[in-house]
Fold these 2 entries.
Entry 1:
Amino acid sequence: MALRITIDIFSGRPNPSMIIDGGEERELLDRLRPPSGKGAGEAPRIPASTLGYRGLQIDQIGARPARGLPRSFRVAAGHLYGPDLERAARDPKVDEFICGTGGPIRLHPQAGLLVDLCHREIARFRDLLGKYHWRPLRPIRRRCPCAPLWEPTWWNDNGQVQWNNNCYNYSTNYRSDTYAQPGQAAGAIYGSIVCADVRAGAVADRLIAVPRHGNRCPKEGHLVALVVGPGWDFHWYRRGRNGYWTHKPGGSQATDRDNSGNLIPDPRTADRGGYTDFCTFMIVMHGHIKIL
């Protein structure tokens, strides 16, 4: 048997994944198995979808899964989440172990970049727990009649649609099931994770850059916004018919909240976690784009 570990951290790019087996697999399973007895501890509620680190997806490959653990489950901030499973892991710092220099992350070709990024993002995620809150919807006067409806259940199926369509798919309201990348359909995919390159890829896909447009609804099409975590990932938002902005971090659920649990009247002022660079507003003309 082997374990496939996927770090759920990116929004635009595919998430990094590693496979371990043998003694390393057994050591990790021992760290993951919840302790028995009353001291095991229940898992806290975590946000369904935020920007940045969201946990680890663990898949047991091959023979029968290890006793006490389902074939597929998630780990987040030292807790396990899966079918009939919401418990503390035996090692409360198992996230940091997996993403440490001696952990399974070392097997990934981009380990040098990922170790520092993951540790920074895991610390942010742990700090988020207990602080995430929900605030009530306040009406926005200026609505966007041409924008897509807020229909989260269409994207959040916990299956093919959710897992294979990322923030770029969601923002353009274009389901490709390919985890679409700006410029790929036009043969002009971005060369680096900076605003200029990702924006150029989107322009090649026939999105219209409107950097001076501001947070106003266009007369035709709908408004989207590009932000970047310099050197590591990009993310997209879209303005909805009710005037608020929504987004879909990677293969996780579409959400109408930022990283603090607030509604998003303007992505420039939202809590975007590590996506520090606001790049531009763009317009999606319905039926005029193609992404892949």
Entry 2:
Amino acid sequence: MVTYNPKDWLKLIIQFHKTDTARTLLWPMLLIGAITAAIEVIEKIYIKEPIEGNVTIFHQISGFIISLVLVFRINTAYDRWWEGRKLWGGLLNSCRNLSIKMHALMPKNSIEERKEIAAMISNYAYVLKEHLRNNSPEKLVAESSYINKAEYTKSNHKPNYIAKQLTEYIINISQKNPKTQYDSLLISSNLNDLTDICGACERIKNTPIPYSYNMFIKRIVFVYIITMPIAFGFSVGYWSIPVVMVMFYAFASLELISEEIEDPFGYDENDLPTDEIAEKIKLNVHEILLD
């Protein structure tokens, strides 16, 4: 995820980051400019009568409608990004609460049990972020003797396997002590949160924007941009070349940004900082249980 100072206007305006859509759209913008120039030349040479004003007005109205569609598109994508951020914030808090409760319930001298729980919680966050990236990591971030490597490798849903082992381990610890055999009920909600958050993240990842809606936006933007020189050529002349290029950059950038953030769990620069959150979970859990 890109970190920046939102108050530094000048730097944000003049700096071209590698995620800037201008880099991606440079060649399409030049192509659109060349097409616009060709249309303008044809109009100047072969079309003597200027196009009626109602065509230009119709193009302006259609541009307003397309703008509304694009606003809805990027708002929908941002909602998915923000929901993903809230879910990972909830995962961080659930792991902290689970660790705090286990710290209070377990004896101070139960070092091995504390290490096992800290390892499994840390591994869950790490495996979940890789699972959402369609990766299947063989190596975990913390050693745990309660995670069978053969079973873990064979499992199709690795976050579920670690959550299952963690729940089983905590229940076994509670049952070994008759005085605290029902302590697992105190942390059941935190254990349930792990799977609930995983399922919610999978829902975001596996439910893309409908195909027909996505294709409609791309086609209508293309048609609008490619007809803009025809509608405005006679009124602004060759100035339509930079105008069309700027409009294409604005409309296409909104679509590119939407595509990038609608799946917020990947490796794109504007995706969620799941690596940093998973590392923070590991550090917090170890600090609570072991320090």
